[in-house]
Write a structure and sequence with these properties.
13 helices, binds iron/sulfur cluster, 6-stranded parallel beta sheet, single chain, 19 strands, 5-stranded mixed barrel
Length: 452
């Protein structure tokens, strides 16, 4: 039996690497801890520390090991350290062997039983929890309280096996959650004051496959939109091959569905897309993306991999051309890095590091310019902004437009309200403005001054 942690003033610390699925998994664990009386703290004060890992890029994996090493030195002697997430799936044993202060490692499928894990760890056990399947994907796992927005899983895992991606090996086969449980979870969230739902899945567009014959992602969007208390619905991630016209129409028709899609293109070259096993062509992508923009007047963000094995200057120029044609509002662009188990990792013809760096810089420079121009075009416009909380710096409020742009603004409004904001300034990655009321007052005062 290990040393028991005092039941008073219990503290936890959690560090999350990676995507929104990991963010949601971390939230499930944080909420389970808060339900037991733990409160968040700095790592040096925590009784339970957790690191939620990401395996998508080699760099993130390297960062993980140095981060665990640092936590082992910083943490209180009796504090328990748990490492979870995608890296644990294939490096769990190694992590336990390498870091003697790590008490447990658990993969993403074990998070549904986090309370049991916690019990075992607090009882002094040192364990590896790596089940091959989720026992109950429908289970409604806890959420943190007092939030305006919430993530809700609709699918787990992925069946696509893109040749560069480790996710199908770390998160397993795609499973859709039954709609009744998703709806029940959203109902519970609305009772707790949530106004914005973000539906999560590696490929939300394939929701329902293998589960329903006549019910799909578009039907789910219509059903969720019936909740009076839900003001906004977002979703990530869409796969271009499954992104349909009926979804574009639903985004247009349902006011509550935000006019933004994250549609990862990865490359603009048909040859590279084929090697990546993405199952769409650049022409198909361009057609869908432009149709979405034209129909919904919404924004598109994307993911790009630069320097995939065998990528030539011509292939890269095709990606640049794609950026010029679609004018993504933002993109997450990275140099290719080989990942274990994936088909592309065995390709010998690698693009030299310097070439990848030069291409990435060129791509990011153009993207920055396009993002900036897109923000500049918003100056003077009025947007509906859902108030999410105080802005990071200064006393401004913060929220997002339906097109997913961050807006910092002055005015008085409660969290969870949708307010009108007049944009006055474009920043590199955000907009700045005044709430319409305060803008109106400001204008009146100025007119009054002029009249005097
Ligand atoms: S769709 Fe492709 S890139 Fe996305 S998670 Fe699945 S395998 Fe990975």
């Amino acid at each position: 039996m290990g040393k028991q942690i005092s039941k008073e003033n219990l503290k936890y610390y959690i560090k999350t690497f990676g995507c929104q699925m990991n963010e949601r998994d971390s939230e499930k664990m944080a909420a389970a801890l808060e339900n037991k009386g733990f409160s968040p703290s700095l790592p040096q004060d925590a009784d339970i520390l957790m690191v939620n890992s990401c395996a998508v890029r080699e760099k993130a994996e390297q960062k993980l090991y140095s981060f665990i090493g640092r936590l082992c030195l910083e943490k209180k002697k009796d504090a328990k350290l748990i490492v979870c997430g995608c890296v644990v799936q294939y490096k769990g044993k190694e992590i336990l062997n390498r870091f003697k202060d790590v008490n447990a490692v658990l993969n993403t499928r074990r998070i549904e039983d986090f309370e049991q894990v916690l019990k075992d760890v607090l009882n002094g056990k040192r364990i590896m929890y790596i089940p091959s399947i989720m026992r109950n994907p429908n289970k409604i796992l806890p959420h943190l309280k007092n939030r305006t927005g919430a993530f809700v899983d609709i699918t787990y895992g992925c069946n696509n096996f893109c040749s560069y991606c480790i996710v199908p090996y770390t998160r397993g086969k795609e499973i859709s959650r039954e709609k009744e449980y998703i709806i029940k979870e959203i109902r519970m969230l609305t009772q707790g004051g949530v106004k914005e739902i973000t539906l999560l899945g590696q490929n939300v567009n394939s929701y329902g496959k293998g589960l329903y014959k006549n019910y799909n992602f578009v039907d789910l969007l219509y059903d969720i939109s019936k909740f009076d208390d839900i003001q906004r619905i977002r979703f990530v991630t869409s796969h271009p091959k499954d992104f349909s016209c009926s979804l574009i129409l639903a985004i247009k028709e349902i006011d509550k569905v935000c006019k933004h899609i994250h549609l990862p293109v990865q490359s603009g070259s048909n040859r590279i897309l084929e090697l990546m096993r993405r199952k769409y062509t650049r022409e198909e992508y361009i057609e869908k993306a432009l149709l979405f923009k034209e129909t919904t007047k919404g924004s598109i963000t994307t993911d790009i991999i630069i320097g995939f094995p065998t990528e030539t200057d011509y292939d890269f120029e095709q990606t640049m051309d794609m950026l010029r044609k679609i004018r993504f509002d933002f993109s997450f662009s990275f140099k290719y890095s080989p990942r274990p188990f994936t088909a592309a990792a065995s390709t010998k013809e690698r693009v030299p590091k310097e070439t990848k760096e030069k291409r990435l810089e060129k791509f990011q420079n153009l993207q920055e310019k396009i993002t900036w121009e897109s923000n500049l075009r918003d100056v003077g416009k009025i947007f509906n902004v859902l108030v999410e909380g105080d802005a990071k710096r200064g006393a401004l409020l913060t929220g997002r437009t339906t097109t997913n742009k961050i807006v910092n603004f002055s005015g008085e409004a409660k969290k969870g309200k949708i307010v009108k904001v007049v944009i006055q300034e474009a920043k590199k990655h955000s907009l700045q403005g005044n709430m319409e009321d305060s803008y109106g007052k400001f204008e009146n005062q100025r007119c009054g001054f002029l009249r005097r």
